[in-house]
Design brief:
This protein is 42% helix and 13% strand. It is of the alpha/beta class. It has one domain: Spore Coat Polysaccharide Biosynthesis Protein SpsA, Chain A (Alpha-Beta Complex), CATH 3.90.550.10. The longest helix has 20 residues, at 326-345. Bound molecules: 2-acetamido-2-deoxy-beta-D-glucopyranose (NAG) (3 copies).
Length: 372
């Protein structure tokens, strides 16, 4: 569900309008030759975009065999000493943050969300006001996608990793489904695969998810890959609408091969982001061959604006999904934190007995977003 997708708010209308203005300007000046030139440019761009270095996170250190082999775009990249140290740098950060069983909590951050009074501040605040969640900050690794986000992370948090991405600028609000946006989302999948290959389990959380309670008691013990939902039916049904913004993945051959398959599937579904492709491949017979067990997390505990966790006595996390526009998101997340504080301030018996729920979404409109 696109509207519920992490970063879907990364939509900056002004930007696209600027582009349109610029193109119109070229059209007026150069007339009909423009489509040809533009077409040629797009072809060149596409070839470059597809080519090796842009997709490269860092060289794969585990050789893998078909059918989960990385595409040639990746294997052709020569490995070199400085890049290899990226792996060690990542491992150092993960090691410091990991729990005893090699589990880390991870989020990705870019400039726009890292600004003061933006999403990242609210995210950290939720951990501090949640029940027994403050200690989990010791296990949170922030993956900065640009220099500004990295600098800001270093000020606020002990575990920051700068995902160096050659020749790419992921700062700002990437336009939804633009090449930059797609590249950013797919790079995330590739990166998380690397984390699994290093032997770490992870809870991946979008930064626009508020943590109110420890989620670990509510994870399934018998699933390699568990994922939150925009709309939830039951724990096993592939018809659920998974939301890639929150998932818990255990490192194993199953999960590593699943991430490889997921990443490689992007070429079968062009112009789709990771979540839409997941919605396609979740029915693929290959999943059985890979041996991955997928389960869906109940919105009663892992809710969002699409389908809120109604009972504040149960909620673990709440996602600002089904919300378009960064300002609206910030507005409603602040109210959500306020609701939570009011709930915590109630006397114990009242908290337990009276049904308490949210006063959000308000500005995050759900209009037109209905379960399929
Ligand atoms: C995972 O794969 C590696 C390499 O192919 C193999 O040595 C190992 O036994 C596998 N582990 C499990 C649990 O299947
Ligand atoms: C992509 O499609 C081809 C042809 O249908 C299929 O053989 C291949 O397994 C698919 N790859 C992935 C990663 O889905
Ligand atoms: C939120 O909604 C209120 C009432 O419609 C409006 O006045 C306010 O400007 C909105 N704020 C944002 C950030 O969208």
């Amino acid at each position: 569900m696109k509207a519920g997708t992490p970063d879907s708010e990364g939509h900056k209308p002004e930007n696209s309008q600027n582009h349109h203005h610029r193109y119109r300007h070229y059209f007026l000046r150069y007339g009909s030759r423009v489509p040809l030139v533009l077409g040629a440019f797009l072809v060149i761009f596409f070839v470059l975009y597809r080519s090796a270095s842009l997709f490269q996170v860092f060289p794969r250190w585990s050789s893998s065999s078909s059918p989960f082999r990385q595409g040639s775009a990746l294997t052709n990249v020569p490995s070199s000493a400085p890049e290899k140290s990226e792996r060690d740098k990542l491992n150092d950060v993960l090691e410091k943050a990991a729990m005893g069983d090699k589990t880390v909590i991870m989020t990705t951050l870019n400039d726009a969300w890292a600004e003061p009074n933006s999403i990242f501040d609210l995210f950290l605040e939720s951990f501090k006001t949640g029940i027994d969640t403050k200690r989990l900050l010791n296990h949170l690794v922030v993956i900065a996608m640009d220099q500004k986000a990295y600098d800001r992370c270093l000020i606020l948090h002990p575990h920051c990793y700068f995902l160096i991405t050659k020749g790419k600028d992921f700062s700002g609000d990437a336009f939804f489904l633009s090449p930059e946006y797609l590249d950013m989302m797919w790079r995330r999948i590739l990166f998380l695969q690397s984390v699994l290959e290093l032997g770490y389990n992870f809870v991946f959380t979008d930064t626009d998810i508020m943590w109110f309670r420890d989620p670990f008691p509510h994870f399934y013990s018998d699933a390699d890959f568990q994922i939150s939902c925009d709309f939830y039916w039951n724990s096993w049904d592939m018809k659920n609408n998974p939301n890639g913004g929150f998932n818990y993945v255990k490192s194993s051959n199953h999960s590593i091969n699943f991430y490889k398959f997921w990443y490689n599937s992007r070429t079968n579904y062009t112009n789709m982001h990771d979540q839409d492709v997941l919605n396609k491949i979740k029915y693929d017979p290959m999943l059985r061959e890979i041996g991955i067990t997928i389960k869906f997390l109940d919105t009663a505990y892992f809710g969002g604006f699409c389908q809120p966790s109604r009972d504040l006595n149960k909620v673990c996390t709440m996602h600002a999904n089904c919300c378009i526009g960064l300002d609206r998101k910030i507005h409603d997340l602040k109210i959500m934190l306020e609701d939570w504080r009011k709930y915590l301030a109630l006397p114990d018996d009242e908290r337990a007995s009276r049904p308490n729920s949210w006063t959000v979404p308000q500005n995050c409109s759900l209009k037109g977003l209905v379960p399929p």
